[in-house]
Amino acid sequence: MENDMNITVAQYVADIDDINSSVQATIDGQEMFVPLDPANRHYASIVSATATDGSFWGDTVPEPMATEAATWLFNKQLTDYNTATARLAQYIVSVGRAEVVESQPTGEQVYNEETFEMEDVMHDVITVTAIEPVEATVTRMVYSEDDPMAEPTEETIENPLITTDVAERTAAQATVDATPQAVKDAA
Amino acid sequence: MTVKISKPAINVREELADLKKPTGIAGEAMLRAETPQEQFNLIGAGRKNLIVNGDFSVSQRGDFTSATTISTNGTYFLDRMLSYAGNVTGNVQDMNGSIKHTATNSTVGYLGLEQRIEDYSRLAGETITVSAEVKSNTPFAQIMINDSAYKDGVHHSGGGDWEKLSHTFTVKANPSRLYIQVWIANTATSLNANISSGEYIEVRNLQVERGRIATPFEHRYYGEELALCQRYYYKRTPSSASGEALSLTAANTNGVNVQPWLFLPTTMRTNPTMTLTYSSLSDISAVSIARIGLDWFHLNVTATPASYARIIGIAWTADAEL
Fold it and tell me: What is the pTM of this model?
């Protein structure tokens, strides 16, 4: 679980040589001086919060924070996109998966007397195993909460494996749909 | 010359029977160990506890011996211990050797503590055992870890007594983190549990060690534990509001900037977030912190005309927590 930081004010602090050296920020109601260090949790939180809503910087987000936040957002969207596409590439449990057979060389070669050439000896290899679709529904026994002595009744529901699969695929598709084209192009 | 030597008779059957004396599982394991290192690991000898402040003795941020509201989910109170009150209201209390989290409303959420292990990559693929003494009045009280995703551990009975809980986990080969939780939660897939107001979890002697065996808790001296904690958080408190002042004799020109260099007591995990407080400023118009290093920081002071300027009752904190 990530900690929820509430950032309300932020501004760069310059050192004696007029170089931005820290961020003076109000986080969870307390004024802090945050080093420009991605390994610092407050700085990481400022960058991610800026990517979402940088209004705590004032009218405009100053550089280099604006660029850093944009880079952070791009990388996050790229990671989320790759995770989502990998999830969508998995087979649909209600459909199953067909077997895929490929003809591959065994490493042996024989002489073809008609073409006068050495040729690979081929054999069939299963590269993707078949998986049967799961049952569309399952039956479960339902016990009465009001009357523990009552006979249980049968209830037929959608297979929970399908329910979970559909929910995860829907979430993954939503992530893909919301991903900017520039991020997709970089994937 | 012939010398006759006599020895007392022995019963060979009895001697052989003694050799078959049962040694127990632990004894057998020790006998089977092929190297001293294996024996060392079996009994958990040496510095073993990967948890810092596992006896909850260090509390630099303040005195939390009275119940203190967790107003922000995921806040440090006792050193190195992140307190959560997720979707629930709750408080935290230092019980002098243990830490207690109590729910103050009835809802669906999670509540308790987490410690984030810094050097988690060295535990990649290893077996670790988490143990703690836990007291709770809900069976949702449990140990979990998160090494990229949450993993379920072992539950308290909810009977209200102290129980020693221990669970062995295998850290994934390429963990992105290692967080240890002892909290009230539902499951690894859905943390939110049904929590009633007044339900609590109290924890003492929290330990994480390599291997499959929960060995006795490793007690460390307070000074050692404090030094370990200060890698992640340090608080400098003046003895009185007016008694200690930082005097800057160089600041004798109007508007001049000076940067006194101050040091932290130890090298911190990363460049820390600093807070600065003082009771008053003398001949100084502004003070801030500009540059921050692993064990130092620069004050940025703008002085006004004076023979010397002073920051009275100066105090600071340095936070390099995970």
Answer: 0.81
